[in-house]
Amino acid sequence: MPGYTSHKDDVLKRLRRIEGQVRGLQRMVEEGTYCIDVLTQVSAATKALQSFGLTMMEDHLHSCVADAIAEGGDQARDKVEEASRAIARLVRA
Hints:
Elements: H1 8-30, H2 35-71, H3 73-92
Helix pairs in contact: 1-2, 2-3
């Protein structure tokens, strides 16, 4: 079961907020908003997605990875490696 299951409504609410930011960017471009103002909103949307990604990673570590470690064996090693790769992707983004 995904780590965010217990607060799925909050996760979806956060994603809808980010979606609203992106739609706001579309509207800004349609209306011919000044470039720097658009870039400021791009930065805000990017930060929101990064923060969301980090929260998802934390949920994953506290649930999926922790459960796998408690069970032990190859699955624990695999989950840690999977999380490490995901963290690397987040850092490079």
